[in-house]
């Protein structure tokens, strides 16, 4: 399925599907909305002062910013428009070496592309010599008409990390109350966001990205997507195969699993990652591991901390409560970045020995990103998921059993995601139809120990796309480009020179190093 754009608009019939527009095949111009004004717009670049509020005014230094106008509904462009925030760092090499733009989506869904590009530009500086590095806040995110759900719902989503919050272990789950909470959140998001909400799914973000490609002056889209950005890249390759250039998908998302199945697989992956963290600390760095010299010792230390915080939560330096939920948050976010494992180990030990949560509270602060990530991740994932199964008391009990078996440490906290779309209209099934795309070869990067996008998704997505080359990182963490010099070298060879690695090439793990209390520069907020 594809959409072809021309100077006079879009050629291809359209199918209205859950408020989105999907190309279905050749047609006359009379069958399609006229999108000429969007595809003929020019971006006006300037400084980013108007965009700096969410960042405290510092992270966008040196970036150029612009606004891209897109229709709310590609099937009915007269319904209205929104403006997307776009950021760019110009290529640093000689003009003759410039290859155009490299567009990024850093994941979430719900991560601000503009903010994250500013924070991550040094990671991609080798690519920035020959490409303009570009990103944008997708529709419904950050500076681009953000999804809003009202104060009460937003607080509930923050506590549940983008899903209805389940009570702590030891307290019975009230199925009726949890379902009511999910439905109330859905209603609040619809009420506060208005007519944009049915149009925030990945199909429309992909359409926006093609308008951006044209506005940047690029014949082909060269793109790097991380995590959720791999879902977006896969959809773009399906919709716009003839306009796809060099696409790189790192930390590959599933194209086929609903929220319950994907949540279970993530729970298993987070548990495996945490078990690896304990084993790495206790067995590889026995003398330096503050949790003990054996896995049993380390596990007992964690259990003691859970028990003590359950009995008597602590206070962080800012006066906020630090209990089991905050401990789980520090544990889970640290799994994204192995360089945080040392701080996690010392932070758990400080609570165990001294009842001091300062290190873990600081870890959580590092991951607490400004913006509407919790609202956006819910809205986009529900727009991309067509499954809506009524949730009964018996069904919820089964979900709880499945998730706690999948992960004793994280399962109960993650089970809310399995019912998070309760009360939302059924989403589009387009993502699940992406298969055997006709775009050029796509480079997929998968990490064997990835907690958030299990490696099996890399293999499954490669089979579905049918035109993928898989590059494997045999280490830990979420996303490999920033972690492995070997992955960077092979990725750069493709993006800069078009040289793909052999399918199935692997890169060795990079050790997280001897545990210490030093915090990493960043942690993912979504």
Mean pLDDT: 89
Total helices: the number is 17
Measure the end-to-end span. 31 Å
Q: Describe the main β-sheet briefly.
A: 9 strands, mixed
Number of strands: 15
Percent helix, as a range, is 25-40%
Supply Rg.
23 Å
Unreliable segments of 5+ consecutive residues:
1-30, 54-58
- Give the overall silhouette: globular
Which structural class matches the secondary elements? alpha/beta
| Strand arrangement in the largest pleated sheet | 5-6-8-7-9-10-13-14-15
Fraction in beta strands: 15-25%
What secondary-structure arrangement, pairings included, does this model have?
Elements: E1 4-6, E2 9-11, E3 13-17, E4 20-25, H1 36-39, E5 64-71, E6 81-89, E7 101-105, H2 113-120, E8 132-136, H3 151-159, H4 175-193, H5 202-216, E9 221-226, H6 228-239, E10 244-250, H7 259-284, H8 295-311, E11 314-315, E12 321-322, H9 324-334, H10 341-354, H11 358-367, H12 373-383, H13 393-406, H14 411-414, H15 430-433, E13 442-449, H16 455-465, E14 468-476, H17 485-497, E15 505-507
Parallel strand pairs: 7-8, 7-9, 9-10, 10-13, 13-14, 14-15
Antiparallel strand pairs: 1-2, 3-4, 5-6, 6-8, 11-12
Helix pairs in contact: 3-4, 5-6, 7-8, 7-13, 8-10, 9-11, 10-11
What would your notes on this structure say?
- The chain is of the alpha/beta class.
- 38% of the residues lie in helices and 15% in strands.
- It has 17 helices and 15 strands.
- A hairpin with a 5-residue loop joins strand 11 (314-315) and strand 12 (321-322).
- The protein is globular.
- Mean pLDDT is 89; it is low at 1-30 and 54-58.
């Amino acid at each position: 399925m594809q959409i072809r754009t021309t100077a006079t608009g879009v050629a291809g019939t359209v199918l209205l599907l859950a408020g989105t527009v999907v190309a279905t095949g050749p047609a006359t111009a009379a069958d399609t909305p006229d999108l000429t004004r969007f595809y003929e717009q020019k971006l006006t670049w300037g400084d980013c002062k108007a965009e700096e509020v969410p960042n405290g005014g510092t992270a966008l230094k040196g970036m150029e910013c612009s606004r891209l106008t897109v229709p709310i509904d590609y099937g009915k462009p007269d319904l209205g428009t929104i403006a997307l925030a776009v950021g760019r760092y110009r290529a640093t090499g000689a003009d003759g070496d410039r290859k155009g733009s490299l567009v990024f989506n850093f994941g979430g869904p719900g991560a601000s592309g503009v903010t994250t590009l500013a924070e991550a530009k040094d990671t991609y500086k080798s690519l920035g010599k020959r490409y303009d590095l570009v990103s944008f806040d997708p529709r419904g995110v950050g500076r681009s008409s953000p999804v809003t759900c009202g104060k009460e719902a937003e607080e509930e989503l923050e506590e549940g990390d983008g899903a209805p919050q389940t009570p702590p272990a030891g307290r019975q789950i009230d199925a009726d109350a949890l379902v009511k909470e999910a439905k109330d959140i859905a209603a609040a998001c619809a009420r506060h966001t208005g007519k944009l909400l049915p149009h925030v799914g990945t199909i429309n973000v992909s359409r926006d990205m093609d308008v951006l490609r044209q506005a940047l002056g690029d014949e082909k889209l060269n793109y790097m997507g991380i995590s959720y950005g791999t879902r977006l890249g896969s959809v773009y390759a399906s919709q716009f195969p003839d306009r796809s250039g060099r696409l790189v998908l790192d930390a590959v998302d599933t194209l086929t699993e609903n929220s319950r199945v994907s949540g279970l697989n993530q729970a298993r992956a987070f548990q495996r990652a945490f078990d690896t963290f304990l084993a790495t600390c206790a067995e590889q760095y026995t003398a330096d591991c503050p949790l003990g010299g054996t896995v049993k010792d380390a596990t007992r230390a964690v259990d003691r901390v859970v028990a003590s915080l359950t009995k008597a939560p602590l206070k962080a330096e800012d006066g906020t409560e630090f209990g089991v939920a905050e401990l789980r948050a520090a544990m889970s976010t640290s799994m994204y970045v192995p360089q945080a494992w040392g701080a996690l180990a010392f932070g758990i030990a400080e609570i165990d020995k001294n009842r001091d949560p300062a290190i873990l509270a600081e870890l959580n602060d590092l991951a607490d990103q400004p913006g509407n990530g919790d609202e956006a991740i819910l809205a986009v994932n529900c727009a991309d998921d067509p499954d809506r199964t009524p949730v009964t008391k018996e069904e919820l009990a089964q979900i709880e059993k499945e998730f706690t078996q999948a992960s004793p440490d994280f399962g109960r906290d993650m089970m809310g995601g399995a019912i998070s779309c309760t009360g939302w209209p059924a989403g589009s099934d387009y993502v699940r139809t992406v298969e055997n795309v006709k775009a050029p070869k796509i480079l997929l990067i998968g990490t064997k120990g990835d907690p958030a996008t299990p490696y099996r998704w890399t293999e499954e997505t490669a089979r579905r796309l049918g035109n993928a080359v898989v590059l494997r990182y045999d280490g830990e963490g979420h996303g490999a480009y920033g972690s492995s010099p070997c992955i960077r070298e092979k990725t750069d060879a493709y993006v800069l020179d078009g040289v793909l690695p052999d399918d199935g090439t692997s890169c060795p793990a990079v050790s997280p190093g001897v545990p210490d209390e030093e915090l990493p520069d960043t942690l993912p907020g979504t």
